[in-house]
Design a protein that fits this description.
The chain is mainly β and 189 residues long. Helices cover 11% and strands 37% of the residues. The longest helix has 9 residues.
Length: 189
Amino acid sequence: MSSKEKVQAAKPPLAAMSGRLIGVSLAPVAVVDIELEEPHLNVAIKPRQLEFPRYPLNSKPPTKRLTIINNGPTPVAFKLLTSDNISYGVSSKFGIVAGRTTGKSRRVDVRIFRKPPDPRSGDAGDKPIKNHLQVLVTELQDPQLTAELAFRQPDLKFDRYKIHLLYTAIPAPAPSHSTPRDDAVKNVK
């Protein structure tokens, strides 16, 4: 038996890990073998958690920015899914982020906002609630496709990112309408 056949015989069956199939040899030999079933997309998503304070019903809802950055050479399409569509909204559910070789901007900012509390979802707005936002990202195979059509392709492979959405139920600080001079006068009196 050759040394290559010994290494092949020592490989364990593939185990599922994070949506990808990875095989790792745990034998006491110095060989570690890792195989990815699908290509990994070089995408960064920031931040990984968004916090939303409580706000008055007659004011504009707080908005947070989620940035999707494509560090890979080819364009990618993304799709956003929230765990609570009644409480959260997004500025665009689908989108495309250009790749390194296209010469266009490789980042897209998406606005995420918290809607007013809705009793239909069991949300009175007085308790902290944890939800999440899933960002699905796939390589855009055909540049003529829109992002929505890209996610309708059969046998679609995508990376999934989970962003935590935290509603703190703590009132947002009231905006101050005084000037620094007004504050100084108050402190003198």
